[in-house]
Specification:
single chain; five-stranded mixed β-sheet; 33% strand
Length: 125
């Protein structure tokens, strides 16, 4: 499936979750509900996918984890913060680089309208 179609389906699921729950909950609640909704919609999803860091010849298991990895293609980073900052974008870009993937979604559920909390992130690797 094409990245744009996958991200469209992910966003649709995020809207459904946010409409049901609203803002103000912990990140873990949104992540679990979005995970459930994505599975229910027939998408292949891995939660907390481990990402090793490779530095020169050394592979380091540093505990980096993608919140949700959808269709072996899209990195989804879930947040519930007052506002997204550059460091959140940098984190998502780093995960894309480590996973060798091109497209990610940075989603902040702690907003009145979820569309204001979604950023599509593209890695130019």
């Amino acid at each position: 499936m094409e990245d744009n179609k996958i991200t469209e389906r992910i966003i649709h699921c995020a809207i459904k979750v946010h409409t049901a729950l609203g803002p103000g909950l912990l990140e873990s609640a949104y992540k679990e509900c979005l995970f459930y909704e994505l599975l229910k919609n027939g998408l292949v999803v891995v939660k907390e996918k481990a990402l090793p860091l490779v530095y020169e010849e050394v592979k380091l298991e540093c505990g980096y984890r993608i919140d949700l990895f959808v269709e072996n293609s899209i990195v989804v980073e879930v947040k519930s913060v007052e506002a997204l900052h550059d460091i959140h974008l940098a984190q998502t870009l780093t995960y894309l680089k480590l996973a060798e993937r091109r497209v990610g979604l940075l989603m902040n559920f702690n907003v009145l309208r979820i569309k204001d909390g979604i950023k599509r992130v593209v890695n130019g690797y």
